[in-house]
Amino acid sequence: MMNSSPAGPGPAAPAATATAAPAVRVEGLTVVRGGRTVLHGLDLEVARGSITGLLGPSGCGKSTLLRAIVGVQRTAGGRVEVLGEPAGGAGLRHRVGYVTQAPSVYGDLSVIENLDYFAAVLGAPRTDPARVIAQVGLAGHERDTADRLSGGQRARVSLAAALLGTPELLVLDEPTVGLDPVLRQDLWRLFRSLADQGATLLVSSHVMDEATRCDRLLLMREGRLLADDTPAELLRSTGTADIDSAFLDLVESTR
Amino acid sequence: MNLTRTLATARRVLAQLRHDPRTVALLLVVPCVLLVLLKYMFDAQPGTFDRIGPELLGVFPLMVMFLVTSVAMLRERTSGTLERLLTMPIGKLDLLLGYAIAFGVVALVQAALASALTIGVLGLDLAGPTWAVFAVAVADGLLGMALGLLVSAFASTEFQAVQFLPAVLLPQLLLCGLFGPREDMATVLRWISDVLPLSYAVDAMSRLTTTTGVAGRTVLDLAVVGACAFAALALGAATLRRRTP
Ligand SMILES: Nc1ncnc2c1ncn2[C@@H]1O[C@H](COP(=O)(O)OP(=O)(O)OP(=O)(O)O)[C@@H](O)[C@H]1O
Ligand SMILES: [Mg+2]
């Protein structure tokens, strides 16, 4: 199944309506976890071919929202539509790549064994594991056991697994946490090149300085959306110099 | 069902076992050591060993497989790899069958070693054919594996998973006829023992020790054990949820 190879600047979309529709459409999403309402009727859209940053303090519901988008979160109301299908639908399972917040790889297997397995499950091309290892800068570590890698290296194996099969939508839960500035820079360049090739990226982070690298930002607080805008417009409307201050300003004004 | 994904999963589980030689050694050696122990426990009464040896030849591998598979599946859940897999195009039954094939290979080797030891080295005196004893031992290992995969769906920590051994297997062990004829039990217990799969596993073995050839009842018992193993796998797949709270 090599139907999802990266297309050029003018990708041959399956249907005209599909290109016009957003990659993700969330309407009135409510999630209850452990007896508490964690997401309160969220509405949002993520445009195709863009990088959207999901920012907000710890515990505000970023991971929960991402889990709902990939279809592993039980929801209490609302609709989540991904690439024109209900989230988690069988047809989406080789079109969406997902990186969980904690690296999800087999610690007792080597890097290449991990990626070979996930590639087989996805039906991705046999050359894909080598490609994604190079993309995340882990060349030379193929035979290392995942448990014996550093935390940042293990996180990159987890990211590499999500890049297998060239998914149309990448949902990344804090993919750059614990990485040094050089590596973060490299990964953001990778994200940009993937978006340029037509992929849609939804990236959560609580490192606010990563926000300026996104095309669009979703600012969240306590399960509600504070803002949905471009970084520049956000700075302009709040009259602040950085996203941190913009966030604080928004929190103040909604109090 | 998708054979490629099932086999890829089986290969991956076997690779994980290869990276953990101590677990493999324990899986293969522990039942054998226990059987040697049993033999010399009844040193002065070889008849006793001939009677209960085959029954325990089925029970020991079953317990070991149960423990290992329940913990293996639980690790898949706690490591987050299960969540990743469930966003990928793999069927829930494909995943469990992959595990079943990998641990089925282990069960096969385990049963071969344990039967060769008991019959070849320890000189167990059997009325029925050797291959039938081997077949029942394999089926018992598969049943233990399938039950282990099933209960791991209900455990959220490794402590809970380990507790399922006494909770699920020990009652079966008490009621399976190992400690006394099932006919002598209270009627209600007798009924319960009639629906527990381990009773059929032990019945099959005990019939092989006393009758020559393979009785129709033995084949039936074997079929019941196999069907229970498959039912446990299917139930395990049905209880696996793509969406979690
Ligand atoms: N498994 C769970 N069971 C019950 N409640 C949970 C569970 N996981 C998270 N929660 C609750 O849901 C809320 C949102 O959690 P979530 O993981 O989405 O936050 P987050 O924004 O991703 O935080 P962080 O930046 O720390 O990763 C939290 O208040 C948390 O207590
Ligand atoms: Mg999170």
UniProtKB/TrEMBL annotation, chain A:
Domain ABC transporter: 24-247
Keywords: ATP-binding, Nucleotide-binding
InterPro entries reported in the protein's UniProt record: AAA+_ATPase, ABC_transporter-like_ATP-bd, ABC_transporter-like_CS, P-loop_NTPase
Top-level lineage group: Bacteria
Pfam family, one: ABC_tran
Keyword Nucleotide-binding attached: yes
Gene Ontology MF: a single term: ATP binding
Position of the signal peptide: none
Gene3D superfamilies per record: P-loop containing nucleotide triphosphate hydrolases (3.40.50.300)
Record flagged with keyword Oxidoreductase: no
PANTHER family: ABC TRANSPORTER G FAMILY MEMBER 20 ISOFORM X1, ATP-BINDING CASSETTE, SUB-FAMILY H, MEMBER 1
Protein name per the record: ABC-2 type transport system ATP-binding protein
Lineage per the UniProt record: Bacteria, Bacillati, Actinomycetota, Actinomycetes, Kitasatosporales
UniProtKB/TrEMBL annotation, chain B:
Assigned keywords, A-Z: Antibiotic resistance, Cell membrane, Membrane, Transmembrane, Transmembrane helix, Transport
Start and end residues of each ABC transmembrane type-2 domain: 18-243
Entry-linked Pfam families: ABC2_membrane (PF01061)
Transmembrane intervals: 21-42, 54-74, 95-119, 131-154, 161-180, 222-240
Membrane topology according to the record: Multi-pass membrane protein
InterPro entries: ABC-2_transporter_component, ABC2_TM, ABC2_TM_bact-type, ABC_2_transport
Main subcellular localisation: membrane
Keyword set includes Membrane: yes
Family that this chain belongs to: Belongs to the ABC-2 integral membrane protein family.
Protein name: Transport permease protein
